[in-house]
TrEMBL record:
Source taxonomy: Bacteria, Bacillati, Bacillota, Clostridia, Eubacteriales
Gene symbol of the encoding locus: proB
Organism encoding this protein: Dysosmobacter welbionis
Any one GO CC term of the record: cytosol
Pfam families assigned: AA_kinase
Full protein name: Glutamate 5-kinase
Entry keyword set: Amino-acid biosynthesis, ATP-binding, Cytoplasm, Kinase, Nucleotide-binding, Proline biosynthesis, Transferase
Amino acid sequence: MTLEQNKQRIVVKVGTSTLTHNSGALDLWSMEHLVRTLADLQGMGHEVILVSSGAIAVGTAKLGLSERPKELRMKQAAAAVGQCRMMHIYDKFFSEYNRSMAQILLTGDDVEDPERAEHLSNTFSALLEMGVIPVVNENDSVSSAEIETGRHKVLGDNDTLSAIVAELCRADLLVLLSDIDGLYDADPKTHPEAKLLHQVTELTPEILEMAGGAGSWRGTGGMATKLSAARIAMEAGCDMVITNGRRMEDLYGIAEGKDIGTRFVSGKTRN
Ligand SMILES: Nc1ncnc2c1ncn2[C@@H]1O[C@H](COP(=O)(O)OP(=O)(O)O)[C@@H](O)[C@H]1O
Ligand SMILES: N[C@@H](CCC(=O)OP(=O)(O)O)C(=O)O
């Protein structure tokens, strides 16, 4: 396959547990490696979109709060503070690699409404055309679906959000960077003997039953929301891979189709 043929539009979603330390403070090593790898993938000819979580945890730490706020308005305020801090650091790191980035904050209404969705899709196209890397998060300060209930309604969580973005942008590949190597046949935190699944071609009831909740106070949704994302991506003809954000360099192999993490194979790739 030539490089031109292999040029892909890749959406990478990174979870709070990869971007922050247990204290909630930013994991600068992780962010720096993420940015460097994305800049490199772009340099290789791929188009890259980043969906980044972390705003609430980072805001909570920056405000010096002893725990993640329970009151909705306080969580939304923490998100506003954290989002700003994260964009500052992302922009600084992307600038070091001579890349431009843009912030896109979305709510469920933005993708549900056809006119807004079209504007959004046009904005993504224009940014990618100019070589800018869009960095997306849910607009937590105005949208309460996920942070209030912990479940997704319209968008709800960034796993689902990233799949919706992948669909909207007609991406070839969605990669979810998590704190775990992929989907296991049970949650390894409670079942140490659990085995990693390398490939999923169909979301059967057995697969859906394997998914448990979040692994730490910073994560949201756990595997359940990742499987919802897989459904959206697969139906849109986009492969999705869950892999460990501790090994950013795996992104190169994943882009080449190597067997890393758990790959949810879309009909488009299978046929
Ligand atoms: N079947 C499963 N396979 C792998 N991880 C699982 C499974 N069920 C639940 N989990 C949990 O999902 C967590 C990852 O999701 P989450 O905590 O939301 O992190 P992230 O910030 O990466 O989205 C893992 O740490 C793990 O404890
Ligand atoms: N939008 C929220 C994160 C929501 C979310 O899905 O978090 P995660 O499970 O860490 O990807 C934030 O920026 O804090």
